[in-house]
Amino acid sequence: MSSTSHLSRLKRILRSCAVAAGLVLPTHAWADDAKELLKAMSDFLVEQKTISFSYQSSLEAVTPDFEKLQFVSSGTANITRPDKLRVTRTGGFADIDVSFDGSTLTVHGKNLDAYAKIAGKGSLDELIDRLADAGVEAPGADLLSDHVYDILMTDVTEAKHISSAFVDGVECAYLAFRTPELDWQIWIQTGPQPIPRRYVITSKHVVQAPQYTLEIRDFKSGAEVAATSYDIEIPANAKTVDLSELQSIDELPAPTVTGGMQ
Predict the structure, then answer these.
(1) Which residues contact 36 (CB under 8 A, 6 or more apart)?
(2) Which residues partner with 183 through β-bridges?
(3) Is 16 helix (H, G, I), strand (E, B) or coil?
(4) pTM
(5) Contact 197, 216 (CB under 8 A)
(6) Any idea what DSSP says for residue 235?
(7) Which of 51, 81, 224, 259 has its Cβ near the most Cβ atoms within 10 Å?
(8) For residues 55 and 77, is the Cβ–Cβ distance under 8 A?
(9) Distance separating alpha carbons of residues 146 and 182, to the nearest angstrom
(10) Alpha-carbon distance 123 to 157, whole Å?
(11) 104 near 96, Cβ under 8 Å?
């Protein structure tokens, strides 16, 4: 691409941004039913005893030089309520397989040739909290909870139904919510199965407002879900470590790799 055409494209983008910056949504946006649509989605998810989906997530970070970087991962998730979970995630800095079979949590860092096992029972909510404390964030963890609506609506000050939209060719209701610290958006499939298709969280008070984006595909529930093993096959050469010793399982690289992140 020539420098001239690149400049023309940049000018078009800037003009579009200028238009967006001047956008003023109506007081009630497209419709005044954002909370009702979110509640319907939440109730639908909680009612599903078995769920599987594939996903792509992206996490933005800002360097001390104010360069915004985007780290992309993809994987799969399988859930059997009340107490079984298996999640995989592969990205540029981690390749992990996590499973909880109701009595044992196993975290396998494939890229590290190491794994950790922890005995214990608990609900999915308790497990997700425990994983988060260990630096293993389940994809769309808020959407996997038994209390989806209450968690999502915590500290919400504004709720808007912006418009109808299409994600991967599927019609969705596009909703936007605001809290004092975060803004977040969600695209919910219209029709009898209100499946979340896209979920974006914006850290609005962090420099350059980095975002976390989750895109959900191949969502299945009930009898549609293929048989899933919650027993991870660990290679014979993998070493056993404490969960706290499993480094490099996050979606972001260590700060020293890029000179630090903000």
Answers:
(1) none
(2) 178, 202
(3) helix
(4) 0.84
(5) yes
(6) -
(7) 51
(8) yes
(9) 22
(10) 29
(11) no
Tokens standing for 66?
């104010």
Contact between 96 and 110 under an 8 Å Cβ cutoff? The reply is yes
Q: How many CB atoms lie within 10 A of CB 26?
A: 8
Q: What is the mean pLDDT of each run of 10 residues along the chain (262 residues)?
A: 53 52 54 93 96 95 92 94 92 89 91 88 81 72 91 95 96 97 97 97 92 96 93 93 74 52 48
**Which residue type does 26 have?**
P
Cβ atoms of 54 and 74 closer than 8 Å: yes
Cα distance between residue 193 and residue 214, in whole Å: 19
The pair of structure tokens assigned to 67 is 């360069």
**Both tokens of residue 167?**
């994600």
CA distance 33 to 3: 47
Decide: 196 and 37 in contact? Cβ < 8 Å: no
Tokens of 61: 């970070």
Strands 196-203, 211-221: parallel, antiparallel or unpaired by DSSP? antiparallel
Beta-strand relationship, 239-240 and 114-119: parallel
- Residues whose CB falls within 8 Å of the CB of residue 118, separated by 6 or more in sequence, listed in order: 104, 105, 243
